Amino acid sequence: MQITIDCPRCDAAKRPLQTCAACGAPGRAAEIGAWRRRLHTHHLRVIMAEPRRAPSTPIPLPRPLRVVVAMEELIEATETLIVPDTVAPPSDPLSFDWHERRRLRLRRSA
Hints:
Radius of gyration: 38 Å
């Protein structure tokens, strides 16, 4: 797509800085301002336009799967899996006391 401006001599569409194909008028540097305004207007219309969504065709979904669970093996299990519901604090936690008077100091980002 090319953004064109109106020729100042014959009002035909032309590219800025190029000779008009209809009347032969030479291109001028003053045409750049009009071209920039037209370019800005075009893209502002595109940005502000309401989105257009094409109707989509329905996607065929696979049929539901049939799942069979054999419970006999679960009933015969003798071992029980125990999952703790609490987390114990560590036995020897590290100290991050920033006000220690030792020579070796930890950075705050450590």
